[in-house]
């Protein structure tokens, strides 16, 4: 049975929690400041995995929590943490996860965001930065993932989480679409599919074990859980994933990395491309056998622009990373830079 491409993308936003978490430490995010984290450090907010809890594990400062926890306030005020996004971009929504915080979660939170050029100091962020509210002061529940949709369309580099007045938050997820500075693209080949370069998963057949967003993360996977893995197929079909590239470009090198997938790597894979959401799909990499736990690299002799790519794996399994190295077309580079200079994201 020949696999068929999915229908054209409708242009509507998917539910924001399916979008990449731009704040993840693994993507380069960092908690650059907080006013207090006496009980549990704020860096826990951006860990990749869900918060863990072991009862009756006490340190010098009390019960050990896998999250951010401040002391009890005895005066007016709020507690805050500033996160530098690993991939600056447009924020579609945030999740304030209070997992395991039951009697010590904040009753209200709010979230602000800012766009700052370069690498600002903490003092610049505190004194000279204009912050935009993206989540008004809102109630949250304890031991719960509290989602908040964001309607902003601007590109942000930093977000500030405020607890009213104090308490604990386990994880802070900032879901959105990466929007890099396109002026960096003119200095050679780069990964057109990478999240940090504006690549975006737009559809996939199956994400039973792990998210396809992992395919576009920076660096090498450190274990099988950092890749994309599907459930076992019991039919004659195959699994696939579709990616919108940073812009219209020409792909010269494809990398399919099955690292850490030993007994569950795909037997083979293909890569196709198309120019525009309604364009015809064309072959980039023909169906090629794959080896387990291996970084496969293929030089592509194809002088054809594309804005989207689709990887099909046969019949199912796991892939650690998908890389599509190339360059933007001159028109795409010019359009992205002009859009950037107009302040559009």
UniProtKB/TrEMBL annotation:
Entry keyword annotation includes Hydrolase: yes
Catalytic activity: allantoate + H2O = (S)-ureidoglycolate + urea
GO terms, molecular function: allantoicase activity
Domain of life: Bacteria
Top EC group: hydrolase
Keywords, alphabetical: Hydrolase, Purine metabolism
Matching InterPro entries: Allantoicase, Allantoicase_dom, Galactose-bd-like_sf
Pathway: Nitrogen metabolism; (S)-allantoin degradation; (S)-ureidoglycolate from allantoate (aminidohydrolase route): step 1/1
EC assignment: 3.5.3.4
Swiss-Prot/TrEMBL GO biological process terms: allantoin catabolic process; purine nucleobase metabolic process
Domain (Allantoicase): residue spans on this chain: 28-177, 198-327
Flavoprotein keyword on record: no
Family, per entry: Belongs to the allantoicase family.
Protein name: Probable allantoicase
Annotated organism of origin: Gordonia desulfuricans
Gene this protein is translated from: alc
